[in-house]
Specification:
heterodimer; A: Rossmann fold; four-stranded parallel beta sheet; 8 helices; B: alpha/beta; TIM Barrel; 15% strand
């Protein structure tokens, strides 16, 4: 899923400094699961903002809503009837949701209340970790199911580099070396010979380097 | 001969090669690199110039190499894939060959986190093995990666690095094998402080017959002080500095410790000379270039053979 985390309250307060009536919109998708932008976080953030504004002597009216998803047009429609009653929307969905709101409600300023960090997994309660860079050309069958583009700080395809030490990455002693993990996995699978294969130069056109990406499925279009 | 490289010629004729390296200045003063180069004249067969090592911005390796060639020295262009995509890389390869640089060392480079611009974006369009393939493709196929024909071939002698001391140890020789398969012709290793482990790695290299396919130059760095030894041990990733070596330097009086470091470097070279498959040494005297001629002299590497 998409993993995000709340922006510092100071940054949010600065964005909405001149506003007196805002819509605070959460999302029941990924950001609910990673506890960054669901209904619960809408409530917490709303209270924090209200309190801060009261202390500043600048009261603010906040309408709390949590949409099923902010990345689907039908759910964005749910707030159409009330959007014009507010000066701005503070969205705590991922970056896609924030942008989709902006595209849908063209005359209403939209502010991001969270930072969108990565596509990842819940490693344990309260710990999320990155797993995919969405390069658009999955190579996991070549690397034992561990992505070197994501898990190696240099995205090396034929690693490990000379900085791999006792299983850790040179960039951060807390971070596992992606290529050590690939090596261990090959060993476990009994296919260490796969380490010998040179993975060729990447075609990055399927990644962001080819420009913003879009998938059109004619078979699914109405 | 695949190039006009003096280093390639030396190694091809079976001479035990000596290379060294210069770190470029953190400014635009050409004299700094020329002075460092002049210190090494007659002592080494080629001089590497590092490419923004540890991600600290310096004068480019490319321009520093040109400055060295202007004073009659043979330069080895170190090139990292951290800062350039395949377009810039191929363009620099052509420029380097056109300006008389004969050797290239293909590296992935230190992560920008270690440098003075840690907020930078890294590139890593290709990795160091791809860079070897790229130079070879341009030189031997006469084509760009994109497939178009080159007008004028960059005749470069292709090198790369190997770190026998990083982990996982069993993968280190595999990585060398991949570099050889990609077309590398010479290897300069990470600084060797743990000769035992290096010998173990060389055994694996010989078991695979790689020593007959690539010229391996062992990396040697003299320790100036206990502080430097500790720093290398604890702060430089993938560096193997045995406690016994630190104890040996500590064991002599403070003002004789640099001397002891030089002695250790000389002994290391002497042992490397005896190791089957080691075809030379790469002396990296970090900000201590003036010590290289003495080390080479004491290790019996001088005078350098004059070859046609």
């Amino acid at each position: 899923m998409v993993i995000g985390e709340g922006k510092p309250i100071k940054e949010i307060l600065a964005m909405i400094e001149d506003r007196s009536k805002i819509l605070l919109a959460g999302c029941r998708g990924c950001v609910t699961v990673c506890c960054a932008g669901g209904e619960k976080e809408v409530g917490i953030l709303s209270s924090a903002i209200s309190l801060a504004r009261q202390n500043q002597g600048k009261a603010l009216e906040i309408k709390e809503v949590t949409l099923e998803r902010q990345c689907d047009p039908e759910y964005l429609e749910e707030i159409r009837s009330i959007v014009d009653d507010y000066e701005a929307i503070l969205s705590i969905a991922c970056g896609a949701g924030v942008q989709f709101l902006a595209e849908t409600y063209r005359t209403t300023p939209i502010y991001p209340g969270i930072n969108t960090n990565f596509i990842g997994v819940t490693q344990e309660q309260g710990v999320w970790a990155e797993r995919c860079q969405s390069c658009g050309d999955c190579k996991l069958h070549l690397t034992g199911g561990i992505c070197p583009i994501t898990r190696c700080a240099k995205s090396l395809l034929n690693g490990p580099c000379g900085g791999s030490s006792t299983g850790k990455c040179e960039v951060d002693p807390e971070t596992d070396c992606g290529w050590q993990m690939i090596y261990d996995r090959f060993k476990e699978l009994g296919c260490l010979e796969q380490l010998e294969v040179i993975i060729p130069i990447t075609d990055w056109t399927t990644s962001r380097d080819g420009g913003p990406r879009k998938i059109v499925r004619e078979d699914l279009k109405l | 001969m695949t190039s006009d490289s003096h280093l390639e010629k030396m190694l091809g004729q079976g001479e035990f090669a000596v290379t060294s390296e210069c770190g470029p200045p953190r400014g635009a003063d050409a004299e700094v690199i020329k002075k460092k180069g002049a210190l090494l004249k007659g002592t080494v067969d080629a001089i590497n110039v590092t490419d923004n090592q540890t991600s600290v911005v310096r004068m480019s390796s490319f321009s520093s190499c040109v400055l060295l060639t202007q004073i009659g020295l043979e330069a080895t262009l170190q090139m990292v894939t951290r800062d350039r995509n395949r377009i810039a890389i191929q363009s620099d390869i052509l420029g380097a060959a056109a300006l008389g640089i004969n050797n290239i060392l293909c590296l992935s480079g230190d992560h920008q986190k270690f440098g003075d611009h840690s907020t930078a974006k890294n590139v890593y369009d290709i990795d160091s093995i791809h860079l070897i393939q790229t130079v070879k493709h341009m030189r031997d196929e006469g084509k760009f990666l994109g497939g178009e024909e080159l007008k004028g071939i960059p005749k470069l002698f292709i090198g790369a690095a190997a770190n026998p001391f990083a982990d996982p140890f069993e993968s280190r020789v595999v990585r060398l094998a991949k570099k050889v398969a990609a077309g590398v012709q010479f290897i300069q290793t990470q600084c060797i402080f743990n000769l035992e482990r290096f010998a173990e790695w060389m055994e694996q290299v010989r078991d695979r017959g790689l020593h007959e396919k690539v010229h391996i130059l062992g990396g040697v760095t003299p320790m100036k002080s206990v502080g430097m030894a500790n720093y290398m041990k604890n702060m430089v990733p993938g560096m193997d500095v045995p406690d016994a070596l630190i104890a040996r330097i500590k064991g002599v009086e403070k003002d004789k410790r640099a001397e002891e470091g030089v002695k250790i470097a000389v002994e290391t070279i002497q042992q490397l000379k005896e190791m089957e498959g080691v075809h030379g040494v790469h002396i990296m005297a970090i900000e201590w270039e003036e010590m290289v001629p003495r080390i080479a002299e004491e290790a019996g590497l001088l005078p350098r053979p004059q070859i046609a």
